[in-house]
Design a protein that fits this description.
The structure holds two protein chains of two kinds.
Chain A lengths: L1 H13 L2 H18 L6 H8 L8 H26 L8 H12 L3 H35 L3 H18 L4 H15 L2 E2 L6 E2 L13 H19 L19 H23 L5 H15 L12 H16 L1 H7 L5 H12 L6 H6 L1 H33 L3 H20 L2 H19 L5 H23 L6 H4 L1 H18 L1 H12 L1
Antiparallel strand pairs in A: 1-2
Helix pairs in contact in A: 1-16, 2-3, 2-4, 2-16, 3-4, 3-9, 4-5, 4-6, 4-16, 5-6, 5-12, 6-10, 6-12, 6-13, 6-16, 7-8, 7-19, 7-21, 8-19, 9-17, 9-18, 10-11, 10-12, 11-12, 14-19, 17-18
Chain B lengths: L2 H28 L6 H16 L6 H20 L15 H20 L13 H35 L7 H22 L19 H4 L3
The chains are: A mainly alpha, B mainly alpha.
């Protein structure tokens, strides 16, 4: 049983008392920030990234995993209690979750969502163990042209899943790729777009970019909306634990959601958003009485919540085996790993197995911590939700600036952060979703390198991308996805999906 | 759009384009430049967009188009000296130029579409949150270098609190002091990050007897 021995390695490495503590703190902080209305997982992770810097690689990955799952769970809590989704994947949870909360069943909704997510997390961990080694073996056969085509496919599918205009999303990816090229070119040593600023010689720093464009912009946006009307839920949390009947109603939905999410999460560009929408649709289709949906059907919470957690587990697979992030959150994770000096990819599995499997184990640990701390603490999160925003945002802002500054104690970094905040603000004003930009930013140098290598192989002939079988298949898939976007019928369903 | 308004936009557009073109021409022909060539290009691009404002039906798309074209043009301008190379031997300028042209192409496409597709107007920015939030971020680093985290935190919280029109001095001051203590304890002492917490890069604990703190 190779899977078991791998897992044993992982738990041996990640399961130390100190690491468990980091996972716990990560989960707590992730939920703490993630639960704040209007702050989705991306800003949450961006804000909390700096605190993992000082730790050794494995501990920092363990803590990061905790933050990640905490942030996702925090987002669901906000969706259910105040009907404010922090990101696209929790929109579905709002539909029935908030209705349940209005009927006084907020605790049940939160409980089912936590337990469903935990089940999905367990299955997702097994999925990673089963699929990562074969995929990593496959990755060994990948050559530069294949990597390039894979990135094209990933970026294109990411576009389909961004909300709003497809054209703008493509533009944002390209801008991200361009920003990723700033700094010294590894091949020629030429400095590009540094404008004479030595701070840009190593490229644009990851933290000022993500904290500026996500953390700070989020604060400004919330402030503009004023003390927004919040749908308050004043239910008692007496019946937090789901009753037996709730389990009976929801366990099939959890299983279906988990299966769906695990599969969809592996796809490039896939992830939490797609799977939660898909799961909701499936639940509605298989239900005996579909009219209950939208009025507080427990399956409508259990299915999508399990699906998005399963997907957020399995979307690590392309990152860990191929070194390619499939969505903006994975791009953040990849950025964090690279800061720790780890270049995600199949090489990690063979050269540093304890790190790789430790990380996989830490995801499961993160999920466990979530259930352990959140079921008893839901009451506290609810109290936090009722804190006025005027107390919260100065604290969040302070965390953001300290986080950026502490990386190298350089005041210029703060100006860079403010600059990216302005840029992000302008983009939001113009309906350009900034999330795809991070994906491009992370992939920029990789994409250039693989394009360069491919064309060196073929002496400048782009036909090489179609001659290599793997690459050709990936490009054909990309073409199909593009065709799907352009086709009016699919476009309509996509728009409807985001409307809901 | 009234005729007068559209006429004034055309005049502005014309002035901007001519100013830019004149400067480039003067620099080329006589070697006299009033302002850098890059600025001339920005003026001309800006002028063209101002000229399109009377016809726009999706302002947000026209705005995105402007931003994209500016980004692409900036990349082309400042990347002009990078060696292009050939496809088989890509120089450092190859991929950036490719991206820049793609971005400009999408920008122009969006701009043209914005003249026919209907879209919502750009909501005007509120300057209060922008100014105070960005201001507090920008000065944070400089304050840290001089007075350290403990005081900086209070100042930053106060400035940030000004971002809301209903500013309350006492409440914000209390919040600032609370957060200052919290962040110093968490970041400097618990997480052990090398941040100055007091003026001149010192540690606040220097004033406390060594044996109490065990030489933190």
């Amino acid at each position: 049983m190779e899977v078991l021995s791998n897992l044993a390695t992982g738990f041996g490495a990640a399961g130390t008392l100190a690491n468990l503590g980091f996972a716990l703190i990560g989960c707590l902080l992730g939920t703490l920030i993630g639960v704040l209305p209007g702050i989705g997982p991306i800003p949450t992770i961006a804000i909390l990234l700096p605190i993992t810097y000082g730790l050794d690689p494995l501990s920092s990955l363990v803590m990061l995993a905790g933050i990640y799952y905490g942030a996702a769970y925090g987002g669901s809590t906000t969706s259910i209690l105040v009907n404010m989704p922090g990101e696209a994947s929790s929109i579905v949870t709002c539909i029935d979750g908030h209705q349940m909360a209005k009927q006084g069943r907020a605790g049940v909704a939160l409980g089912v969502s936590a337990l469903g997510s935990f089940f999905a997390g367990c299955v997702g961990t097994i999925f990673i163990c089963a699929f990562a080694p074969p995929l990593a073996a496959l990755a060994q056969q990948f050559n530069s042209p294949d990597y390039f085509s894979l990135m094209v496919l990933g970026l294109i599918t990411a576009v389909v899943l961004a909300h709003g205009s497809v054209v703008k999303a493509i533009a944002m990816i390209l801008v991200g790729l361009l920003f990723g090229l700033v700094g010294t070119d590894v091949n020629s040593g030429a400095t590009r777009f540094t404008f004479g600023a030595s701070i840009l010689w190593d490229g644009i720093d990851f933290l000022p970019l993500v904290i500026g464009m996500f953390g700070v912009v989020e604060i400004i946006r919330n402030l503009e909306q004023g003390e927004a009307h919040r749908d308050h839920i004043s239910t008692r949390f007496r019946d937090l634990w789901p009753k037996m009947s709730d389990f009976r109603d929801s366990w099939m939905a959890v299983v279906r959601g988990t299966a769906l999410g695990s599969l969809l999460g592996i796809l490039p560009g896939g992830g939490a958003v797609l799977s939660s929408f898909a799961s909701y649709t499936v639940e509605k289709k298989v239900a005996k009485d579909p009219s209950r949906f939208g009025k507080g059907a427990i399956e409508g919470v259990a299915g999508p919540e399990s699906a998005n957690n399963a997907a957020s587990m399995t979307s690590f697979i392309p990152l860990l085996t191929l070194g390619l992030p499939s969505n903006a959150i994975m791009a953040l994770m990849m950025g964090a790993m690279m800061i720790q000096g780890i270049q995600p990819g199949s090489a990690v599995m063979t050269s540093r197995p304890e790190l790789f499997w430790g990380m996989v184990a830490s995801m499961w640990i993160g999920n466990l911590m979530l259930v352990i701390i959140n079921l008893p603490m839901i009451g506290i999160w609810v109290k936090l939700l009722s804190l006025p925003y005027r107390f919260l945002y100065p604290a969040i802002l302070l965390f953001c600036v300290i986080g950026v500054y502490s990386t190298n104690n350089n005041a210029v970094m703060m100006l860079l952060t403010a600059g990216f905040a302005v840029f992000g603000y302008i983009l939001i004003r113009l309906d350009c979703e900034p999330a795809p930009m991070v994906l491009g930013f992370i992939l920029g140098p990789l994409m250039e390198e693989n394009l360069r290598r491919s064309l060196v192989l073929s002496r400048g002939d782009p036909i090489i991308f179609l001659q290599r079988p793997i690459s050709a298949v990936l490009l054909i898939l990309s073409a199909i996805v593009v065709a799907l976007i352009v086709l009016p019928a699919f476009r309509k369903t996509r728009e409807e999906a985001f409307q809901e | 759009m009234s005729r007068l308004a559209s006429r004034s936009e055309f005049i502005v557009a014309l002035v901007l384009v001519l100013l830019g073109a004149q400067n480039i021409f003067a620099a080329q022909a006589f070697g006299i430049a009033e302002f850098p060539r890059y600025v001339s290009w920005l003026l001309m691009i800006g002028g063209v967009y101002v000229g399109f404002i009377p016809f726009v039906r999706a302002p947000r798309d026209l705005g995105s188009s402007f931003v994209l074209v500016i980004i692409g043009a900036t990349a082309l301008y400042f990347g002009a000296e990078l060696t292009m190379g050939t496809a088989g031997r890509m120089g450092p300028g190859y991929f950036p130029r490719l991206l820049a042209w793609l971005i400009i192409a999408i920008g122009i496409f969006l701009g043209l579409m914005s003249l026919s597709n209907e879209g919502p107007p750009i909501s005007p920015p509120q300057f209060r949150p922008l100014v105070f939030v960005l201001g507090s971020i920008s000065i944070f680093g400089y304050l840290m270098d001089v007075i350290g985290l403990a005081v900086t935190a209070v100042v930053i919280v106060l400035i940030a609190a000004l971002a809301r029109p209903q500013f309350k001095m006492r409440e914000s001051l209390l919040l600032g002091i609370g957060l200052s203590i919290g962040t110093v304890l968490i970041f400097v002492y618990a997480l052990g990050q090398s941040l100055p917490d007091c003026p001149d890069g010192m540690r606040c604990t220097q004033w406390l007897p060594q044996k109490v703190w065990g030489g933190f």
